[in-house]
Amino acid sequence: MRKVEDYLLHLKSKGFHLREDAVGFIYFGQQYTNSSDEITNAAIELTLKAQKNFDGSFYISLLETFASNKINTRKAAIRFLRDKQLLAI
Q: Alpha helix (H) ranges present in the chain?
């Protein structure tokens, strides 16, 4: 699995330039929710897809939702959001 740092570099190479404060918030959210790199990356991806930019409160909400529902893989995160009809992805 890709580390968060590597995922952020990948996004940058694709044209998603996150501000320094957003990057700091990403790491804060990961630590705050004790999320794995895989779940953190999924939350970043889903935030960008749903919001079209990085929305810190949406991102934290996803991480908290995944943690409280014991979601630990990207696939499970996407399935959970589809099943709950929280995101149309």
A: 4-13, 20-33, 37-51, 56-68, 74-83
Kindly tell me the sign of the dihedral angle through the C-alpha atoms of 6, 7, 11, 13. positive
pTM: 0.93
Token pair 């959210």 is at which residue?
29
Q: What is the pLDDT of residues 44-78, one digit of tens each?
A: 999 999 888 999 999 999 999 999 999 999 999 99
What burial letters (b/e) apply to 23-54, b meaning 16+ CB within 10 Å? Answer: eebbeebbeebebbebbbbbbbbbbbebeeeb
The helix or strand, by DSSP H or E, that contains position 34, with its residue range, turns out to be none
